[in-house]
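Entry 14. Structure prediction run on the chain below.
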Amino acid sequence: MTMPSAEPAEPGPASPPDRYPLYSPEFAADPHAGYRRMRDTHGPLVPVDLAPGVPATLVIGYYQARRILNDPLHFPADPRVWEKSVPASCPVRPMMEWRPNALRSGGAEHARYRGANTAAIDQVDQHALRALVERVADEAIDQFRALGEADLLTQYSFPIAFRVLSALLGCPDEIGRRIADGMARIFDATDAAEGNRILAQAVGDLVTLRREHPGDDITSRLVGHPARLTDEEMGHQLVTLYGAGIEPLTNLISNTVLKILTDEDFSADLHAGLSTVRDALDTVLYTDPPMANYCISYPPYPIDVDGVLLPAHQPVVISMAAANNDPALTDGVPGTRLAGNRAHLAWSVGPHTCPARSHAYLIAETAVTHLLDALPETDLGRPAAELTWRPGPFHRALESLPVTFPPHA
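Output returned:
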């Protein structure tokens, strides 16, 4: 007698990966789908890889992120023990390694570095800064307004971030171009060691120039600050300022323009006066902040956070993008709106909060407003689904932002 064959078993659910690779093109293409999968399988603390063989814990819960950011005693930013186990060739090391600056220090040294930076930044004249951005924006638009098309990322957002920051820091274009090249290589984590070398040489040249020829700029004010920063310390302050300035600011401007061009409801509210460009910026800082995953700390011993034991001296990375969109913030609260709400983590919180937040807002808001006023009939040059996002564990960055508009003489 022939027995009936058994029915094939239904395939079970796929096992979650041991670690989610944040460096993959697939993650860059749709990070929010990745964050949802992480939340479903791991909750607010997720094992990830920042690069092949570089493990970390990604914090995607809003309340857990705030707890960690406000606790520098248990979550210090000093990576020197971690570095001992990481080769110099590691592609993400230049974004994470120890530097004598406010971002990678604590206690008295943090206060010394942050005090010097804050004093130098706070002396920037906001009215003069707005006029500078408007002038640079006009000059950028004049280069393509007669063509009827442009790549706003390379022809508008980047020139504004680059030229404005270079002016604020008293940096000549030749040195600034080398700094921008080094920063881009580091953010992409593709040629980071060479980017680090280019960057170190360029900021060293800028420090030498401003020690010999001081001016009314941030670099010169850092040189003259009572903290008496050494050349090495000066260079690392400038690395931090450029790192926080060129790439993130370029991407904030571009991502905000993309939001306005692709979200019809938001665009209608903007044109009807129901929302503002500042609201658009904050919406992007919630949903697609240019620094999506960063604010790294290194616990000095194993620490339990909500039942998850974080290993000693291993990176704990805050996902501003995922934490901002934590369902715990909005579940059960009907009609929650992001516009005008600035409780996001895009500028960080705690002792390492961005000291140039107001300046970044002003630059980005002026740049976007000026573009909309100059070219009000701008449309996206290709479907949004066909735009490419640059891979990398830390940033949310387009490769290009093509647009079209009626040519203007």
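The two ends are 89 Å apart (CA to CA).
Filed with the rest of this week's runs.
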